[in-house]
Amino acid sequence: MPDAPTTTGSPGGGLADDRIRALDAHWRAANYLAAGQIYLLANPLLTEPLRPDHIKPRLLGHWGTSPGLNLVHTHLNRVIKDRDLDAICVWGPGHGGPAVLAGSWLDGSYSEVYPDVSRDAAGMARLFRQFSFPGGVPSHVAPETPGSIHEGGELGYSLAHAYGAALDNPGLLVACVIGDGEAETGPLAGSWHANKFLDPVHDGAVLPILHLNGYKIANPTVLARLPEPELDDLLRGYGHEPIHVAGDEPLQVHRAMAHALDEALDRIALLQRTAREEGIAERPRWPVIVLRTPKGWTGPEEVDGLPVEGTWRAHQVALPGVRENPEHLRQLERWLRSYRPEELFDAGGRPRPHLLAEVPAGDRRLGANPHANGGLLLRSLPVPGLERYAVPVDKPGATLHEPTRVLGGLLEQVMEDTADRRDFRVVGPDETASNRLEALYHATGKAWQESVAPTDEHLSRNGRVMEILSEHLCQGWLEGYLLTGRHGLFSCYEAFVHIVDSMVNQHIKWLKVSRSLPWRRPVASLNYLLTSHVWRQDHNGFSHQDPGFVDHVLNKSPEVVRVYLPPDANTLLSVADHVLRSRDYVNVVVAGKQPCFDWLDLDQARAHCARGAGTWDWAGTENGAGEPDVVLAAAGDVPTQEVIAAAGILRRHLPDVAVRVVNVVDMTRLLPKEEHPHGMTDHEFDALFTRDRPVIFAYHGYPWLVHRLSYRRAVHPNLHVRGYKEMGTTTTPFDMVVRNDLDRYRLVMDVIDRTPGLAVRATAVRQRMQDARTRHQAWIREHGTDMPEVAEWSWTG
């Protein structure tokens, strides 16, 4: 166990004047570089008077937050070097990308990753030109930014990411700058409770730095306008002890910030040392720094007679008309020269030694810490062999198991096998036991730092199951955990995973970009297990019935996303084995927790999952007759059961109809090969589904997704998809499929209606199917349960 960080020198006692001047020089250099990135196309060192052609034609970027971020970066450098800290920073106001890029260029880590952006005048020119420029880098903190684990394009997730990074990293300090605009978002508000789950013994520390510069894009911010005692009460209520830094006079603020960081880090060191040496008596109260500096600090105070510095007008481009307005050009030059660049950079554009005096070296630099490039630290997950957990299947459809309970045994072993290395976690919103994964509690408890009542179960200060009723926080924790080199699984009710739609968007974008950066090492995949799904939310009803997360994910970058719908316990094991070992993907696995028929033994399941889609000859009636008369296809556990039941009815009542049964595990197999790495060629697709025979496809989710994935295929005019169509309520399990026309009787009717020649000669069978649906409606209203012929059905083919 790494020791808690220790203090050197005279913490909190003030710094010598020469050190304050060095910090101020570094901060001025970072501010100069940040402003230069927004404005300058040429003349980076101002060796000649500014002209319009030195200015970018399109001025893009966010100046307002950048001076505050630069201040934090400058002072983190000092304490990291003084205390030999292993530290990263999550930049919540990530729209201040110029600041974070400036810091990594100054510490040399940027030039190490991008040698063409050297730490000299030529490199500075490239740094300026590339920012928010075609062929360059984004204006926000992004995967291209060394030292970052946090996409800055969307606000709200910084603190959750910071805590995820700190979990199971006992020697790591994660500083987290939280913008006061970001602090107004729901995800960030929920994230303040993450300290109730942080174990001071096994986890690292998170130091929130709440940056109150007063304004968002066009409005004041709530927390900045609260009276200080009320803000302190709020932060103390969240379990933090606030330390305040405020001002607009640079040297005064430098001294206050240095003092605040030393005080915060001394508190953290004491809390960790006490917990690790003496045990934990109660949840620690961690420090938080409240930093108040003006928005757009050191920039133009006034433009065209209107105040800018310290107002919302400083948010983006403080001087918008520089090319066209000579006065704006003069004002920009005065602004840039106010940083005295000739004191900061030598004639060759290299930072002068005194401004780098407080910058750490090597991997201790914020731009070079390996925790911010987690693939460097990633170890393969010890996934055990599946034979121990697989259920025996002597013949299809004769036995039932709860697939997620079977998976729970595998996850328990993974949790047990990572007990010493502590690099695997399962997160979920209060649903681990509900989702039948409670076997995990044999290997670990649920993380919890608050009081424990006699009636509580499985709570543990060092547990590695994370449960909180906030999907946002679960997602943020897991993203931070994965991006710093660990493994995990997010288990969630299918309908409510939509709460993190926007978060998964950002993570997918992160992975897409990082895969194109050779210096970014692959990280473990983000794995979703979606259960308590649409077809078995018959007890909770309509509010809990939404299978659309799959549609959302499949709109995203095809090289990153994967979607699996295993139809039984053994296929779920096979899929889980694959996704837990995978890298740089977002894997969505949809599987039921209710008793489900076992269709395939382990070897068959592995082969079927490897194919992603294939025929189940034992269920069909082709009998070597060439092409079938009709294809019955299924994706999902309940649709599979209904398709198999429909195939049994056809076998019994229409034995001369050649039926092919196809099961799809990997939804991306339906896409063309040129659109997704898992997609099928037209030849493969035609061989499986035919080119011109009717295909009745029973799908787990919204029917139009299957049409969208396969609209270019030859068979598409003959493709008829049944799925969820927003017909939900509190009812019986079978009534859910009847209401949505996914039931076995409707599927048989579809076969009769759409197979040439059947409509006339199978009239009696079709009528029998319609009567069964009518009988079903009467039965459930009288008995409240499904008909025996449904409830007691099993495959007898």
TrEMBL record:
Its cofactor is thiamine diphosphate. Its EC number is 4.1.2.-. Pfam families: XFP, XFP_C, XFP_N. The keyword Secreted does not apply. Residues 593-795 form the Xylulose 5-phosphate/Fructose 6-phosphate phosphoketolase C-terminal domain. InterPro entries: Phosphoketolase (IPR023962), THDP-binding (IPR029061), Transketo_C/PFOR_II (IPR009014), Xul5P/Fru6P_PKetolase (IPR005593), Xul5P/Fru6P_PKetolase_C (IPR018969), Xul5P/Fru6P_PKetolase_CS (IPR019790), Xul5P/Fru6P_PKetolase_N (IPR018970), Xul5P/Fru6P_PKetolase_ThDP_BS (IPR019789). PROSITE patterns: PHOSPHOKETOLASE_1, PHOSPHOKETOLASE_2. The keyword Lyase applies. CDD domains: TPP_PK (cd02011). Transmembrane segments: none annotated. Keywords: Lyase, Thiamine pyrophosphate. Residues 16-376 form the Xylulose 5-phosphate/Fructose 6-phosphate phosphoketolase N-terminal domain. Belongs to the XFP family. PANTHER family: PHOSPHOKETOLASE-RELATED. This is Probable phosphoketolase. It comes from Streptomyces javensis.
